[in-house]
């Protein structure tokens, strides 16, 4: 129930709807109970023609005599209206019952009306919260997670809550109120019979709870397997070219089929257990009704402490109480099932974010002096990939980082953008530790161009406006010109409004990279971080992109993680890394003259 309580927290903004729902349910339950009690005078008219009808309005004599007062009051007014005409009396009572049922159903609709806004509002806010937390969590969190499983939590698990746990919100007020009002009427008709009922209700509840105990575990297995299916699907769509190129379709199909088969078996077990709930609770309900018939018959025929019409109305009330009781038992099953989904969602919401801004974080509004890496150490898991790394980059300078794979070059880009935090040491901008800055203001000072040009299934204009939402079309076109991309964009059917497809797959690699550069240009930050921006390109594309990069880096501080010599030979400073440490540092000509590690890298053209 703890996870259910957590979900209820999201209902707070919808208190007004909750209040409307509760008030509507109070009247629904009241008129629902009264509609059965109103049957008593009609049954008296039908079966007790010789019954004595009070000639004067009865006087209320306290709670102990309320049942007789109600019967006499109704009988007196029915008689006054009917004037000894049974047909008129019957029409009056039937009309009363119709009005009571009409009012009951009007308030039932109103209760559902208010609940729609409450329930859907909770789902919307919960989904938004999970997504917001997903994009706030550091990259390190997702390195340990399957994408499909995260997608399943944001989509499928939230949907599971919507159709399993959240409908219980409708039961919280409605069904208990219905039971309370019905029990009051039952107690007024016969206290003995109602006490007898209370003996069997706990027994029914115990049997139902036994069935529901394994639902959470079975539901958890189903949801995890659904995450696995989504992961396989996501990997398939992302790597379809490689799958086909290596004739691995059968291998991936077998993996998907195995996961799908497990989902099939887990779902069967879960649904069959759920399906057992309804017939079990209905059978127990009928069992209680049957025992009531026997015991109530004794009170009517043997003890004669209960009249026949009251007993028939009582049986109607007893059956009426079974409907909300059954709904509550079904709701308890749903909570068991939804609890597994809620737990998986809560894992994301409660996940710690080590990169969260400090309470007194500073908003950085400009870049004035330098970037300094001061004795930094960093590791992703066990081994340090950067060891006692120190470097100062003055404003306006272009610094290149070179080295073989695994030397720690891209790690520098991850740390300056604060995708990760250093383990020891500090990275400072203008003398302020970046951990003391708000992450948003830090990244506002940075433009990033990565090896993989990450574009979205949007128009060219919207892709470029990612970092500057208020940019005009003229500014977008100017950025494209700087990035050497306008030459192909102007020839597209819809120009900057052209949709580039999923991941920009309608464009070539060089075109995508130039759009990525244009996006950074449009943002116009003072610091540029280029993470192997030309390594995946052919020679012609590289030439065009290189010109774009040179245009972009003019008058800007640049950190260039190099793959090819052409990218970095004009750098103000080249830093050579080996196993996380600086082994050489200087300009291109000076490093060549040293005939050390840098020269070997140049000869091998192995800037990875």
Automatic annotation (TrEMBL):
Organism classification: Bacteria, Pseudomonadati, Bacteroidota, Flavobacteriia, Flavobacteriales
Every ABC transporter domain range: 371-604
Protein name listed in UniProt: ABC transporter ATP-binding protein
Keyword Cell division listed: no
Gene3D superfamilies: ABC transporter type 1, transmembrane domain, P-loop containing nucleotide triphosphate hydrolases
Keywords, in A-Z order: ATP-binding, Membrane, Nucleotide-binding, Transmembrane, Transmembrane helix, Transport
Chief place of localization: membrane
Membrane topology category: Multi-pass membrane protein
SUPFAM superfamilies membership: ABC transporter transmembrane region, P-loop containing nucleoside triphosphate hydrolases
Highest taxon of the lineage: Bacteria
Keyword Nucleotide-binding: yes
GO cellular component: plasma membrane
UniProt xrefs under SMART domains: AAA
TM region positions: 16-40, 89-118, 171-189, 195-215, 283-302, 308-328
Subcellular location field: Cell membrane
Annotated source species: Allotamlana fucoidanivorans
InterPro entries cross-referenced by the UniProt entry: AAA+_ATPase, ABC1_TM_dom, ABC1_TM_sf, ABC_transporter-like_ATP-bd, ABC_transporter-like_CS, P-loop_NTPase, Type_1_exporter
Domain ABC transmembrane type-1: 73-337
Gene Ontology molecular-function annotations: ABC-type oligopeptide transporter activity; ATP binding; ATP hydrolysis activity
């Amino acid at each position: 129930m703890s996870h259910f309580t957590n979900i209820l927290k999201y209902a707070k903004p919808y208190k007004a709807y909750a209040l409307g729902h509760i008030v509507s349910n109070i009247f629904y339950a009241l008129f629902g109970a009264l509609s059965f009690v109103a049957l008593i005078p009609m049954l008296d008219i039908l079966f007790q023609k010789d019954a004595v009808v009070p000639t004067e309005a009865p006087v209320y004599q306290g709670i102990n005599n309320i049942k007789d007062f109600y019967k006499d009051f109704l009988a007196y007014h029915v008689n006054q209206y009917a004037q000894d005409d049974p047909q008129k009396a019957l029409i009056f009572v039937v009309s009363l019952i119709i009005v009571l049922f009409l009012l009951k159903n009007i308030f039932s609709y109103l209760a559902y009306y208010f609940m729609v806004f409450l329930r859907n509002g909770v789902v919307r806010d919960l989904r938004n919260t999970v997504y917001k937390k997903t994009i706030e969590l550091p990259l390190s969190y997702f390195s340990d997670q399957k994408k499909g499983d995260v997608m399943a939590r944001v989509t499928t698990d939230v949907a599971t809550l919507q159709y399993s746990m959240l409908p219980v919100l409708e039961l919280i007020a409605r069904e208990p109120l219905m039971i309370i009002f019905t029990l009051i009427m039952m107690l007024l008709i016969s206290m003995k019979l109602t006490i007898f009922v209370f003996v069997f209700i706990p027994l029914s509840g115990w049997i139902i709870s036994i069935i529901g105990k394994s639902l959470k575990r079975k539901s958890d297995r189903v949801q995890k397997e659904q995450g696995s299916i989504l992961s396989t699907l996501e990997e398939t769509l992302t790597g379809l070219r490689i799958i086909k190129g290596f004739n691995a379709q059968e291998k991936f199909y077998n993996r998907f089929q195995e996961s799908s088969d497990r989902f099939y078996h887990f779902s069967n077990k879960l649904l069959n257990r759920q399906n057992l709930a309804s017939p079990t609770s209905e059978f127990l309900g009928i069992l209680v009704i049957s025992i009531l018939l026997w015991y109530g018959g004794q009170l009517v025929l043997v003890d004669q402490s209960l009249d026949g019409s009251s007993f028939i109305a009582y049986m109607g009330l007893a059956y009426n109480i079974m409907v909300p009781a059954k709904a509550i038992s079904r709701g308890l099953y749903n909570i068991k099932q939804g609890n597994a989904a809620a737990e998986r969602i809560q894992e994301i919401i409660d996940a710690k974010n080590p990169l969260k801004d400090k309470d007194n974080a500073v908003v950085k509004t400009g870049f004035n002096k330098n970037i300094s890496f001061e004795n930094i150490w960093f590791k992703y898991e066990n081994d340090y990939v950067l060891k006692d790394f120190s470097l100062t980059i003055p404003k306006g300078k272009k610094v290149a980082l070179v080295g073989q794979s695994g030397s720690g070059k891209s790690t520098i880009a991850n740390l300056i953008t604060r995708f990760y935090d250093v383990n020891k040491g500090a990275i400072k901008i203008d003398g302020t530790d970046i951990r003391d800055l708000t992450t948003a203001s830090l990244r506002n000072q940075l433009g990033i161009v990565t090896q993989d040009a990450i574009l979205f299934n949007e128009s060219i204009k919207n892709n470029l406006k990612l970092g500057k939402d208020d940019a005009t079309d003229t500014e977008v076109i100017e950025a494209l010109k700087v990035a050497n991309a306008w030459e192909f964009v102007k020839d597209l059917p819809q120009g900057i409004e052209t949709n580039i497809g999923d991941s920009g797959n309608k464009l070539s690699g060089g075109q995508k990279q130039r759009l990525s550069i244009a996006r950074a240009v449009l943002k116009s930050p003072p610091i540029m971080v280029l993470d192997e921006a030309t390594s995946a390109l052919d020679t012609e594309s590289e030439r065009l992109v290189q010109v774009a990069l040179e245009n972009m880096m003019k008058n800007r501080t640049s950190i260039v993680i190099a793959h090819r010599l052409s990218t970095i030979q004009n750098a103000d400073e080249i830093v050579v890394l080996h196993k996380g440490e600086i082994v050489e540092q200087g300009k291109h000509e000076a490093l060549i003259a040293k005939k050390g590690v840098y020269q070997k890298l140049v000869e091998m053209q192995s800037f990875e």
